[in-house]
Amino acid sequence: MAFDSLSEKLQGVFKNLRSKGRLSEADVKAALKEVKMALLEADVNFKVVKQFTNTVTERAIGSDVMNGLNPGQMVIKIVNEELVNLMGSDVKDITFGTGGAITTIMMVGLQGAGKTTTTAKLAGKVKQRGKKPLLVACDIYRPAAIEQLQINGKKQEVEVFSLGDKEKPVKIAKAAMDYAKKNGFDVVIFDTAGRLHIDEDMMDELASIKNSVDILNTILVVDAMTGQDAVNVSSTFDEKIGIDGVIITKLDGDTRGGAALSIKAVTGKPILYAGMGEKLSDLEQFHPDRMASRILGMGDVLSLIEKAEAEIDKDAALQLSKKVKKASFDFNDYLTSMEQMKKLGGLTSILGMMPGINASQMAQIEGAVDDKKLAHTEAIILSMTPAERENPKLLNPSRKHRIAAGAGLDIAEVNRFIKQFEQSKKMMKQMPNMMGKGRRGMRFPF
Amino acid sequence: MAEKVSFWQRLIKGLTKTRDNFIKSMDYIFNGFTNIDEDFYEELEEVLIMGDIGVRTTETILDDLRDAVKKEHIKEPSECKAFLINEIKEQMALGEAAFDFEKKTSVVLVIGVNGVGKTTTIGKLAGKLKANGKKVMVAGADTFRAAASDQLKEWADRAGVDFVGGPEGSDPAAVVYDAVHAAKARGVDVLLVDTAGRLHNKKNLMNELSKINNTISKEFPEAYRETLIVLDGTTGQNALVQAKEFSEVTDISGIVLTKLDGTAKGGIAIAIQSELKLPVKYIGVGETIDDLEKFNADEFVDALFYVG
Fold this sequence. Notes:
The complex is a heterodimer.
Chain A: H1 4-18, H2 25-41, H3 46-60, H4 71-87, E1 103-109, H5 115-128, E2 133-138, H6 145-156, E3 159-161, H7 169-182, E4 187-192, H8 200-212, E5 217-223, H9 230-241, E6 245-249, H10 258-267, E7 271-275, E8 283-285, H11 288-295, H12 301-311, H13 314-326, H14 331-343, H15 346-353, H16 359-368, H17 371-382, H18 386-390, H19 397-407, H20 411-443
Parallel strand pairs in A: 1-4, 1-5, 2-3, 2-4, 5-6, 6-7
Antiparallel strand pairs in A: 7-8
Helix pairs in contact in A: 1-2, 1-4, 2-3, 3-4, 4-11, 5-6, 7-8, 9-10, 17-19, 19-20
Chain B: H1 2-14, H2 16-32, H3 38-50, H4 55-71, H5 77-92, E1 106-111, H6 118-131, E2 136-141, H7 148-159, E3 162-165, H8 172-186, E4 190-195, H9 202-219, E5 224-232, H10 238-249, E6 254-258, H11 268-276, E7 280-284, E8 292-294, H12 297-305
Parallel strand pairs in B: 1-4, 1-5, 2-3, 2-4, 5-6, 6-7
Antiparallel strand pairs in B: 7-8
Helix pairs in contact in B: 1-2, 2-3, 2-5, 3-4, 4-5, 5-12, 6-7, 8-9, 10-11
């Protein structure tokens, strides 16, 4: 989970602050030292960190801390505000062509940043908006790059334009534009070869593509794991060919992604999307303010809600929530919720977006949530008769034995699952109370 | 020998901008300061952190330096430079046995997350071993990523070595099983195994790697085992996390550090060595098949600090 360890650390620091009555200069300095360390460990550029901590220190040691508020909250507020300032607060998007002009997007970046995968992901996003995208394979250098784009294009049901690896990228780009015009494509995305920002010849190639084809969006794809050098890479790309926006990739796993902060701070170019996983649907609009609050451990509940809205069948969700409230939840509902969970990217992915869950807890959860177990659970429910699924009370020992045989599992496992099911039903009854507490907790997460 | 010189020249060239910045600041610190005071340490901290050496390792290095300054009565900032270089060199030095797998009948598992240059590294390693007269086989056990197998096959073809793969989505352990048997039948010296580098769901990765490991120990118990983790030299502190995570999943015997041809300083190698005690065995500086070299601590640190 991005920035997780950082939020954990900041929470640790601020816990200590909270216990004190008022913030002294020494307190702020001590806290900010930890903030500095945490940011550096997250690979935020040293100079950016220095600037950031100076700004926060200046603001924190001042009259506005003495408002009679909880001092810890006050520092968090300042740190959060400054982080938002740094990341920018508006959600930005790619620029679409006006008046029937084709929207052109050129993807650039270092080798291994994830350009080809991201290109296909972006095509999927564009397609969702009712556009007709064309992918163009301009990476003629890396073995099998064209094929990778073609495979991913096929998965996204987006056409891929290629002239093989013998033609120059500029020629491919021009031919692709002609092809797009003739065949009614309105968005053209160019996948270019990965290159080093210090490789003059290769950088010139990008510039000449940009000169021969009218590129509306030049998007720099950056690996979230880039170290201190992220600043050099992005500013060189910006100086040499001019970038309009950034997509951060691999912002999952344990990536802290401090590079995102550095790039924004140094180039001023907006981060448009963030790639979160291997699946072609795993590209999300980048919300800088939410990212900032996620750094501070407030979770990313808004993103979760949006994701859920897009992917969950709303009616089914509504029904389910009604049932949860009435606690008339049965095995059919359990199955439905399991399927929806899968669509959201699994339980762990959802939990990761919740506030107050830190890296070590996540690790425990990941250990506990076993895909095989989920499959077993599914098998158990599918081995029940429709009547049993609706009315769990029917389940007597003989029926349980039949179910176990049907699922190919031990009777003990069936019993365990049914017991768990009853327990979670009990938990659901208490849910409304818990929700109330949760909301209060969210307002003051520390 | 000629090739070696050109390689290090390339590394030095690759590290040029790096070196320029790094050395400029280093020189500024070591020659610009007249006293070893807090300002001196603070500047040094900045330079080391900007080199991706990491906060913790930087602190360790600085603590050691402070001790040495006290104990050995070092007065001049310039003397600190020699101390630093020596300390890092000692830390990074490889033992005699580091490259034993090249001489024996061995299976080399290559692990690491996606995009670090794993496939490329395998291609280069295959080419090098073959040039040394070894019979090499490459197994594409990354059946998860689209076209991973094709890319690897392409590299195997370029290197002129045998390739065993499976269709996308097939069982990686089955590919390894096939490869091991093919390798034994054909009298292969070194079998290089590419693995999937998925980022999330550690449990799956763990299961997959242990299944592959079990397959190898069961089907090819006499083979010498080596597990190399490939790390991107441009990655910052996350490389440390990656190495840590993988080391929890499987035993790692060495690191391949790639992409040192940019402006990244590769200081992360020092951090990993210092925190996880894993040796860097190879480094890569470019795209062609010769651009992979055995790691040499002296030359690496000298190139980084540009000594002479």
